[in-house]
Amino acid sequence: MPDAVDGPFRPVLQDYQPVEPSYNVFSGVFPAIVGGSVGTTLGMLAIARRLRVSPAVQAAVVGIGVVGVALGVALALGTTLSNAVSFRVGGLAAFAGQLPLLLRPFRAWQARGDDVASFWGVGVAATIAGLLASAVIGLSVPGIRDTL
Fold this sequence. Notes:
Blueprint: H1 10-15, H2 29-51, H3 55-78, H4 83-111, H5 120-140, H6 142-145
Helix pairs in contact: 2-3, 2-4, 2-5, 3-4
């Protein structure tokens, strides 16, 4: 009798044994909107660690977050958008780049039938850290500080 799970997820499921329940990858959108790139990167990094993805994928999540911060700063300096909107656009762009990296491992984990863990504590902490980082960046970059 063949296994109950057969098909494209079979190799992933055989090697995949998370220790703790994973967070839902779509939960990272709240820190992206409110906390910007730093918030979404911290939240998605927590999700990546729960999914036990490779260090290369975790490094890619951080790299995309750095690009999101740079995008937010560039938008704040080069457009008439407010600083808050600029950092949030950078956060949503980072989330859009990080989501495909974690979606397949999350779908493989979800195929096992386990429930997701609550993202509340991690999400709020990532959002607050993102807001603080956005304030520090806004105050430390001269062109942005002048528009506050």
